[in-house]
Every structure is written in structure tokens, then in C-alpha cells.
Design brief:
The complex is a heterodimer of chains A (114) and B (812). Chain A is mainly β and 114 residues long. Helices cover 0% and strands 39% of the residues of chain A. Chain A is built from no helices and ten strands. In chain A, a hairpin with a 2-residue loop joins strand 8 and strand 9. Chain A is globular, with a radius of gyration of 14 Å. Chain B is of the alpha/beta class and 812 residues long. Chain B contains 25 helices and 39 strands. Chain B is elongated. About 1% of the residues of chain B have low confidence. Classes of the chains: A mainly beta (114), B alpha/beta (812). Chains A and B meet through strand 1, strand 2, strand 5 and strand 10 of A and helix 17 and strand 39 of B. Strand 2 of chain A pairs parallel with strand 39 of chain B.
Chain lengths: 114, 812
């Protein structure tokens, strides 16, 4: 198995995240914010706004976007792109939902503790 | 000498609707004091503008606003109004009419204006309760009542009226499906392209539209439950609105032996087969045609009045009519032969991105029809050319761009002739408006509305009426300021939104968004916190706070800092503390290694740099020492700052600290449109800086001066004096009442300073000066406080909302 193989890591159940909210998977380096929309889509982004590193996990989720709590940048959850006129991009993390379990795609195997 | 007044002719009008009353108005204008007039109406009120029922259903207008002739109008014109009693018989030999309750009136001249009835398609089940038409204010009442308790509505008929009904039901929070028999919507007014744009627009608002849908049956036991289509599709329904057209109401005329076909037959002078009986409006048939739009009624009323008063021998000549759809946000106009044929040519303009489609139909250099969708402001210019048969050869190249193709130029009312119709709803021409402005020295839109009725109905001609005011008055005319919408998700402003939430009993964020036509599925970071606040304020104890619609600080009950840590401020009543509290704070700082401790401007202690995961444990320790949340993070009552007052200070006149503590005990925990700060100074030296606070109290020898609307911040504003009072109870009552007035009236994120600048300090003073109003506001404030004075830290320290503080998972 080479380092680029995606490992799908179970981080919790979709119902652990309320609708239109986000929770964090804490990781060494940078936390990952996992978002749940009103229609149960799940997205994952690094928890750092491209502007001043605000915690996107603490923003207001609307549609498939999140508004950063620090300076109201609006970030697309699907593409990580800041909405015009702002410019910037947040690193996306692959995510799947299987039978209600949220699986994050990470580069290498890691231990998980809930 | 004996003066005997000449006996007046007796005129009876049957049908107190738009056509009949307009006919009476035209008669009074030509021959005042000539007739002794009686009006019979089946509905129990004065006359109202029936074409404005859709905006009433949509919650954009009230019934009062569409009432054109209140009872006082009848009294002023010495007209006997018999409302709520339909006429059941006409005795043409005796020349009398008799109502359902037995009221009989003789006539010399009789006018029938019995209008039309909605066509109820006679499918099985059409008589079930819950199946209605859309014709009068009672139907609107039924729909509004059903919308409060039921979810699913089906509108049969995707014509003008059906779509207006569907839109209104949608805005009342119902789940709406439109069934339309034809392949495209409003096929009598729209070409397929604009019908497609309209369908997409309405579907985008959440309406479901099925075309080529043929209703087979309506099912239900004691009331409607479902609609079945011919293809077997079955749709659940709590309400079915039939809007499949109208049929002239001829029953009375037919019983009286008047010549009727589809409608009551009239000649060019609006006279029926009995020379003493006239008919007008949607009940008539003229040269084989029946009518369903408002504009022809105005022309008929004029002809009828000319004939009855003997003013002129005019004839009714059917004119081309134009149509607009009264659905807010949909801008459309169509007139004339908009489909065209082999002998016509089309000029088409399309801008798909803006959703604009304009089609002009030309025959032999004359405009014969048009459809405008998405940009209909020039409708009356085209309509005028169609009606007048204007030769358009010279402007053919450019006319699709409107009367004035220069960028930024006004819609061009100055280019219209005086005969051009500005207000289609009330049939008011440019010349009439300009003459009224000149003659009556009108200077505002409302005055023009009152005097001419132009723009008083659907309002789509408002900007043209304003342009005419501008034209007539030059620089003296100032247009009413445009309302700024709450955010990009809606066109509705804060004031209208707050009113609608209360008036229409909207109690959840999705209900507001649906009723008010939000364009986004779940709003944005601007509107959601505003809605959450408005609902919380409107429905205390009932509304459940939506934490997903709170800013992070109000959700976390702490202030997020730029590094993602939080600051924690415990409440210190009136700025007072004790050794025990200070010791507990010191212990918390040590235990959780809180990097920074600072005294705030509001006389509190701020613990900065607390890690999110530590928050519940920090609060637990602070709670244990008797301290609760200071709400330093909220659009809420923040702090009451005090000076030491008469207890210690040699200048102090009153116990300002005690008063500050009492104020804070009463107001803590309350959510407000923006942060709210108070202060109490013990003497006019004002050490607590009370005159730059939202609510400031300054003690005097005689009592207390109450000041409001101050703030520091970017733009410093000194308070206005609200009142001078003598007792502590009065201070508390004024404070609670002021808070509640601000809570109920201001816009979200509007501090008291800009709020007072907007509404005027006089309004605030007058409102609070009235003892009954003040008491009621204060009581509403105290009621609301019953649900908001729980310490949010206690719950969370005990494990509530744990998901806010703990990560979903930890990866090492």
C-alpha cells in the first residue's frame, strides 16, 4: 500500500452533527470541519478560513456554504472556494456517508479515538 | 312660498361590485342630485377592488387597503346601501326588485351588475367541503384559515387568477400544486417562451406545476382528501381551489325574462332587452363577447352613464386589453394579438440570463400585440401604440428597447401622450393624473392615489406615477425612500418582516422564509440570526431558539477570539464583586492556565484565551462560586455600569449602585436587536458615563433623569432625555418598557442610537409617556424575561449541548 492510497476513516454518525452545523475532527496539524446541510449532504474542509484562519466549523451554514465567524467570508462547502469578491481556497477532504456513518478520506492509516 | 323639490328618479343598482359602483360614480359625475340611488350587494360590506384579492391572500395588502368605497362614501353621496342581501326577484311589470330578506325597492332605472361566478368543474367530489373558487373576500378568508391548519393545496387552472391564488397559498406556507389542462401556463396571455420562464420562476419558489393535467375526480370522506387525474395520478389535497374561468351570473336576469345567452345581452348603449334595465360588467354579453378583465368595465360604465343621464349617445366599442400578473417579483405584461399569424411579423428580444423576453407582433407597420416578461415597465407605451394603431415604421428598428434607448434614461413617461393609460387597474390616464396634480396641488404619491386612484391597486405603475410627479413638480418632488431588503435572500425589509411575523402568526424560520418568498433554501448568515431574534421576540415561551441560526458567540456563550480561543466574562451585578468571587476567578485562571485577565469598560473581569474544550469546566467552577454568564458575547443586555453613589460618595444624591443592581437583576438575560448597555450615575457629575449608554440613569436631588439612545463606538452619540421620574419603581418601569419597545420595533443589528434617529425621539417619548402603553410594554418585557433568565452556563456545565464543545473524533 503506497502513501497515496485513500483510507476511509469512520469519524462518527451523521446524526452526531445537527442540521446546518459542523463539528470538528481534531487532527495533528489542522483540524477538519465536517458539515451537515439541511438536506443531509456532508462535506469536510480544513477548519481554517483562507482569510485569517478563522474556524469555519463555528460559522453559520446555509445552502452549501458556510460564513466564517471572523469576517463573514462565505466559503463553498463543495469546492472550498471563497465567494466573490473574496479570493481563496480551503483544502477539501474527501467524505462519504455509508449507512449513516461518516467516512473521511485520509492519506494514510491512523488511529482513531472518539 | 312653498318650494317643492323636484322628485328624483329612482335608480337601483343590483351588484355592489367594481363595475356597478364605477357606473354609479360616472352617473354622479355627470348628473349629481338627479337620482335617488339604492345599491343592493350580496356581500356584507362596501365595495372593494376585487382584482386586489391576490395581494390580500399573499399578505401584501389588508382588506381595508383594497376597500375602494367604505360605507361612508355611500352616506356622503346619499346612496342607500343594502349590503348582505342578494336580490332574488325583479318584477319588471311593477318595476320593483326584492331581496332575499324581503326588502323591496321600486325603480325607474335598473342597473344589473351581478358579475360572474367561478366555473366549478362538475367532476365527482366537486361539492366536498374544502373545494372552493377564488372570487371574493370570503374565499380568501377560507384559504387563509385552511393554510393555518393544513399543508397541501391544489389549484386547478394555471391562468392568471389560478397562479395568483397559488402564489398566495405558497406564501401562506402551503405546499401548492397547480394543475393546468393546457401545455403552457396562461396561454391566453403568454406565448410559450414567456410561459416557460414563468413556470421556471414559480417552480423556483417551490410551486409544483403539472401541465396537461386533466382532473378526473376529487376524493374525500367528510372533506377533500385527494385529487385524481385522468392518467391515474393521485395527489393528496387539504384544499382545492377551482380557477378554471368564470361564467356570467345571469340567473336573476333570466328569471326576469331578460334576453340572455352566455351573458345578459346588451346593445351598444348597455341596455338590455327591457329599455328600463341596463347591465354592466362581467354579467353581460355584448356582440357575442363576454368579459373577464377590469379595463373594459371602465369603458362600459362611461357609456352606460352617458346613456342613463342623457349626456351623450355614445356606444361601447370593445378595446384591446392588457394584462399583468399580480405576483410579486414577476414582471409581465401582454396585450392584443400576441401570438400573431401568417400576416404578422415578430420582433423578439431575449436576455436569458436576466430572464427577459419581449415579443412585439407587427402587421403592416402597426403594432398589434406584445408580450413582455421580466421587464414590463414599457408596457403602457406599447399598449398605447396598439390601441391607437400608431404607425411604427420609423421606430421599428429600436422600439423593442423601449421608448428611450439611451442608457439610464427614465422609462419615458414624458414621451407618452396624455391619453396613455398609466394605471390599468383603475383606468387612469396620464392626462388625468397631471391634471389632478396641477388642480389639487398634489405633491406626494399618496395624495395622487387618494385623488385619482392611480397606483392604489396593484402598484405596478407606482414608478410611472412617481415619474409624473417628478415631471410636474420638478425638483420639488422627493420619491419615497426605497426599502432596503434584509439581505440578498429576499426583497422584504426588516419593518415589513417584523409586522408579517406577528400579523400572520409565523412561528418558525422555515415558515417565515416560505411565507415571505425567500429565494434561498435556508437563508444566509445575515437573515437567519435576524429571523431567530424576531421570532424569539414575537413568541416568548413558544419559539424554540434555533442555535444553528445564532452567531458563534451566542451559541458558545463566550466570545471567539482571533486565534479560535474564547473569552469568558462572569456577571458582576452593577459592577460589584466580593473577595470570594475574586478568589474563585483567580483559582479558575490558575487551574485552566488562562493567559490573560483584563478589566472591561463595562466594569467586569474578562478571562481571555480559554480553550473551547475547557469552557464547560470553567463555567462549572464559576457557577460554584455563585457567578453566572455576563452575556458579554450577545446581542443582549450586557452590563449596567454604576458609580458608588450616596452610599460612599460625598456628592452622591441617590444609591446608584443599588439602582444599577436592581436594573441588572430585572434585565439580564434579555435578547435585544443589538447589544444593550446601561449605566446609573449617583449625581449629575455622571461618573458612570450614563449619557453615552443605551439606557442611562442620572440621579438628581429630586429623583432620576432617564436618558436613552447613547453609545460610544465609531460614532459617539449622546443620549436624549426620555423623562424625569421620582421613584425607583418608575425607573424600573421605564427601563423595562423602553427595552421592550426597542426589542419589538428596532431592526436586527440596529442599536438604540440609530433606531432613535430613525423613528425619532418624539415617538419614543410619546409612546412611553402614556401610562397604559408603558405599563403594557413593561409587562410584556417581564413576561418575556420569564423564559430568558436561565443561566446558559449552568446547563452547559452540566453537559447540555456537549456537541458544541467536544470534537466529533480525535485523530492522533
Amino acid at each position: 500500500m503506497d502513501g497515496r492510497t485513500t483510507i476511509w476513516m469512520d469519524v462518527g454518525h451523521i446524526d452526531d452533527i445537527p442540521h446546518l452545523r459542523s463539528r470538528v475532527v481534531s487532527m495533528p496539524g489542522c483540524d477538519i470541519a465536517v458539515f451537515r446541510t439541511a438536506d443531509d449532504q456532508v462535506f469536510a474542509l480544513y477548519d481554517r478560513c483562507p482569510h485569517k484562519a478563522g474556524k469555519l466549523s463555528q460559522g453559520i451554514v446555509h445552502g452549501t456554504s458556510v460564513t466564517c465567524p471572523l469576517h463573514n467570508w462565505v466559503i463553498g462547502l463543495a469546492d472550498g472556494q471563497a465567494q466573490e469578491p473574496d479570493e481563496g481556497c480551503v483544502h477539501r477532504v474527501p467524505v462519504r456517508v455509508r449507512e449513516g456513518r461518516i467516512l473521511l478520506g485520509v492519506g494514510q492509516p491512523s488511529g482513531v479515538a472518539a | 312660498m312653498n318650494m317643492i323639490a323636484p322628485k328624483r328618479s329612482r335608480l337601483v343598482l343590483v351588484g355592489n361590485g367594481m363595475a356597478g359602483v364605477r357606473a354609479v360614480e360616472e352617473i354622479l359625475a355627470r348628473a349629481p342630485q338627479t337620482f335617488q340611488i339604492t345599491v343592493f350587494g350580496a356581500e356584507p360590506h362596501g365595495n372593494y377592488n376585487r382584482i386586489m384579492l391576490s395581494p390580500v391572500l399573499a399578505g401584501e395588502k389588508t382588506f381595508e387597503a383594497i376597500t375602494t368605497h367604505p360605507r361612508s362614501w355611500y352616506e356622503e353621496n346619499e346612496i342607500e346601501l343594502i349590503a348582505g342581501e342578494p336580490v332574488v326577484t325583479i318584477d319588471r311589470a311593477a318595476k320593483t326588485v326584492t331581496g332575499a330578506l324581503g326588502t323591496t325597492r321600486p325603480y325607474d332605472v335598473l342597473i344589473l351588475a351581478t358579475g360572474s361566478n367561478p366555473i366549478i368543474i362538475p367532476v365527482p367530489g366537486h361539492r366536498l367541503p374544502g373545494v372552493i373558487g377564488f372570487r371574493d373576500i370570503a374565499d380568501v378568508g377560507t384559504m387563509l384559515a385552511v393554510a393555518k391548519t393544513h399543508r397541501k393545496a391544489i389549484v386547478i387552472g394555471g391562468g392568471l387568477l389560478g397562479l395568483e391564488a397559488a402564489n398566495g397559498l405558497l406564501r401562506n406556507g402551503m405546499d401548492v400544486t397547480v394543475l393546468h389542462l393546457m401545455p403552457t401556463l396562461m396561454e391566453r396571455q403568454l406565448d410559450p417562451v414567456s410561459a416557460g420562464l414563468l413556470k421556471a420562476e414559480l417552480e423556483g419558489r417551490g410551486m409544483r406545476i403539472l401541465t396537461e393535467a386533466n382532473t378526473a375526480a376529487i376524493h374525500g370522506a367528510d372533506r377533500v382528501g385527494a385529487v385524481e387525474l385522468k392518467d391515474g395520478t393521485r395527489l393528496d389535497a387539504d384544499l382545492v381551489v377551482m380557477s378554471a374561468g368564470i361564467r356570467p351570473n345571469i340567473a336573476l336576469a333570466k328569471d326576469a325574462g331578460l334576453a340572455c345567452n352566455r351573458g345578459i345581452q346588451v346593445d351598444d348603449g348597455m341596455r338590455t332587452s327591457d329599455p328600463a334595465v341596463f347591465a354592466v360588467g362581467e354579467c353581460i354579453e355584448h356582440r357575442g363577447a363576454v368579459f373577464g378583465l377590469v379595463a373594459p368595465l371602465w369603458d362600459m360604465a362611461k357609456v352606460l352613464a352617458d346613456r342613463i343621464t342623457g349626456t351623450a349617445e355614445t356606444d361601447y366599442v370593445p378595446a384591446i386589453t392588457g394584462t399583468r400578473l399580480k405576483v410579486t417579483g414577476v414582471d409581465m405584461f401582454s396585450a392584443g394579438d400576441f401570438m400573431g399569424d401568417d400576416t404578422t411579423e415578430d420582433i423578439v428580444f431575449r436576455d436569458a440570463r436576466r430572464g427577459v423576453h419581449k415579443k412585439l407582433v407587427v402587421r403592416d407597420d402597426k403594432l398589434v400585440g406584445c408580450v413582455l416578461y421580466g421587464a414590463a415597465a414599457d408596457g403602457s407605451w406599447y399598449f398605447d401604440m396598439i390601441r391607437n394603431g400608431t404607425d411604427v415604421g420609423a421606430i421599428r428598428d429600436t422600439m423593442v428597447f423601449g421608448p428611450s434607448i439611451a442608457p439610464g434614461a427614465p422609462a419615458g413617461v414624458e414621451t407618452l401622450p396624455d391619453t396613455a393609460e398609466i394605471c390599468g387597474c383603475n383606468g387612469v390616464s396620464k392626462g388625468t393624473i397631471l391634471a389632478a396634480i396641477d388642480k389639487h396641488k398634489l405633491t406626494t404619491l399618496d395624495q395622487v392615489r387618494g385623488r385619482t386612484k392611480a397606483s392604489s391597486s396593484c402598484g405596478s405603475c407606482t414608478c410611472q406615477v412617481e415619474a409624473l410627479l417628478g415631471l410636474a413638480l420638478g425638483g420639488d418632488y422627493k420619491a419615497a425612500p426605497k426599502v432596503k431588503p434584509v439581505c440578498k435572500c429576499t426583497g422584504v425589509g426588516h419593518g415589513e418582516l417584523r409586522k408579517a411575523i406577528v400579523a400572520r402568526q409565523l412561528k418558525t424560520i422555515p415558515a417565515v422564509m416560505q411565507a415571505m418568498g425567500w429565494t434561498t433554501p435556508d437563508g444566509c448568515a445575515s437573515c437567519r440570526p435576524a429571523l431567530n431574534y424576531y421570532l424569539l421576540c414575537a413568541w416568548p415561551g413558544e419559539y424554540v431558539d434555533a442555535s444553528a441560526s445564532r452567531f458563534v458567540n451566542e451559541r458558545m456563550h463566550a466570545n471567539i477570539q482571533k486565534d479560535g480561543t474564547y473569552s469568558v466574562v462572569p456577571r458582576m451585578w452593577g459592577g460589584t464583586t466580593t473577595a470570594a468571587e475574586l478568589r474563585a476567578i483567580a483559582d479558575v485562571v490558575d487551574k485552566f492556565q488562562i493567559p490573560s485577565v483584563k478589566v472591561t469598560g463595562g466594569q467586569r473581569i474578562d478571562l481571555l484565551g480559554v480553550k473551547k474544550d475547557d469552557l464547560p469546566a470553567v463555567w462549572k467552577d464559576l457557577n460554584a462560586a455563585g457567578m453566572v454568564s455576563g452575556h458579554a458575547y450577545g446581542k443582549a443586555l450586557r452590563t449596567v455600569k454604576t458609580c458608588v453613589g450616596s452610599e460612599w460618595c460625598r456628592f452622591g444624591t441617590q444609591d446608584s449602585t443599588g439602582m444599577g443592581v436592581a436594573l441588572e437583576k430585572m434585565t439580564w438575560g434579555s435578547w435585544t436587536p443589538h447589544k444593550t448597555k446601561m449605566a446609573v450615575s449617583g449625581c449629575p457629575r455622571n461618573c458612570a458615563e450614563a449619557t453615552i449608554k443605551d439606557f442611562g440613569v442620572v440621579a438628581t436631588e429630586a429623583g432620576w433623569d432617564l436618558h436613552v439612545g447613547g453609545n460610544g463606538g465609531i460614532k459617539v452619540r449622546v443620549t436624549d432625555l426620555l423623562a424625569k421620574v421620582t421613584t425607583g419603581e418608575e425607573v424600573l418601569e421605564y427601563a423595562g418598557a423602553f427595552m421592550q419597545f426597542y426589542r419589538e420595533d428596532a431592526w436586527y443589528l440596529e442599536r438604540t442610537a440609530p433606531w432613535i434617529e430613525r423613528v425619532g425621539i418624539e415617538t419614543v417619548r410619546e409612546t412611553l409617556a402614556d401610562p397604559a402603553t408603558r405599563k403594557a410594554l413593561h409587562e410584556r418585557f417581564l413576561y418575556s424575561q420569564r423564559f430568558s433568565q436561565d443561566d446558559p452556563w449552568t446547563d452547559r456545565a452540566q453537559g447540555a449541548e456537549a456537541h458544541e464543545f467536544k470534537p466529533l473524533a480525535e485523530v492522533s
